[in-house]
Write a structure and sequence with these properties.
This protein is of the alpha/beta class. Helices cover 40% and strands 25% of the residues. The strands form 3 sheets. It has a 4-stranded mixed β-sheet. Bound molecules: zinc ion.
Amino acid sequence: MSEAVTIDTSVGLCLLRRSSRRTLAISVLPDGEVELVAPEDSTLSDIAAKVKLRSKWVRKQRWEFSNMNSSRPPLKYHSGATHRYLGRQYRLKIQKGNIPEVKLKGSFFHITTPDKSSNEVQRMLAHWMRQHAKKQFSKRLSQWEPWCAHRSLRKPILHIRSMSKRWGSAHQDGRIFLNPDLIRTPSVCIDYVIAHEVCHLQHPNHDKSFYQLLSEVYPNWKAIKLRLEQADF
Ligand SMILES: [Zn+2]
């Protein structure tokens, strides 16, 4: 199959690939992105017309995915509740104590706090996650510095920012914003998001050259992207 290009259609920007298939295939990914696989000889206007005919179906798929995502049960903060760190599941063990502390040991988050309310436990765990996110992300991002220097790109600078709908974003001045919740996902997912954002320093849009570069630096990106979208982190 060929490299993906982006085309504008009645349902917004779609990823388009060409293959030897004889009809157009339309699929909606869990993040709402639409992927098209079209026969080699079909024209862009043919493809756009076919997408238009299926636009009601695309909207329905997106709606179902958005319901699925929002019906994800909220995280809980009592003893026994499970939380992920680097893709692994841990249970909370909360005990009363004067010196507040969060410690990862065995398969548990040991949380000591004078105030065992779920608000306080949530605050402590979020703080711990953010600290560890900073450490892990900056270690991984700094490995890209020579790559960026070699391409005369700005040195990537890490910023941690909570975002409800995305894992990361990049600015041309070198700032890379990463969602602290990414620390809950496996390290391959973190590396994929970082590779994706670093590629944006070279190519700001999701165009053909962007995906070419991403496939060069992270050949397995598609599988990891799906894993990130489908798993419950
Ligand atoms: Zn992107």
